[in-house]
Design brief:
Elements: E1 2-6, H1 19-31, E2 41-45, H2 51-59, E3 68-73, H3 80-91, E4 97-103, H4 110-116, E5 120-124, H5 133-141, H6 145-157, H7 162-175, H8 180-199, H9 204-217
Length: about 220
Amino acid sequence: MIYLFVGQDSTLKDSPLSVKDTQLKQIKEVFLPKKVEQFNYDCLYAETLKLTDLQERLLCLPVNSPKRMIVVRNVQELAADIEAFILEWAKSGERSILLLLDIEDAGKKDDFLKKIHQYAKVFRFKETTSLNTFNLTRSIEERRPDHALRILDQLLKDGERPERIMGGLRYALEKSRLNPLEIKRRLRLLIDSDIEIKTGRVKPVLALEKLIVRLCALVQPFH
């Protein structure tokens, strides 16, 4: 009896409840009689949760109810020992406890989610993808300047520094399987942009935009 809430929460128009809260309310109505809900419901938070606390809650039996419900929020912050315990507990087939795991950033717990998935009913909500220079490099490889520029804009909005973006592009280039002449051509573009930024001739954002357009314009893509 494991439920997985995967993804970001959001508000509902003309409702005091969010999307996740609405779904949780529906699950409660199915499994928990309203008059005994307070005795059979716990909400825990992964960032402060200790293994002994979870074990203690799971040992509690339902009170005048067929089920007892435990919700663990922010599962992306779950400690490794608790993950291992939950996986073993899931295999036990315990039916009187309903465990709901709420994870917003699935990427942080990808391996855990793959293992727990076979024991769980999954509800997916809006999921956000964490962008990095790998996403930027891939768009350049595909010669999609419009998409690459949107990724660059988001990286900068997320606080990524221009010099780190430049470093990521250089690393991807050095690890590519291009011939030495092609690598030299591309490195020349990176060096020119780096000089423009460091000398103040061009603002960092504009220099990066020009660099991305130039890299996308090259005939031979990265490999």
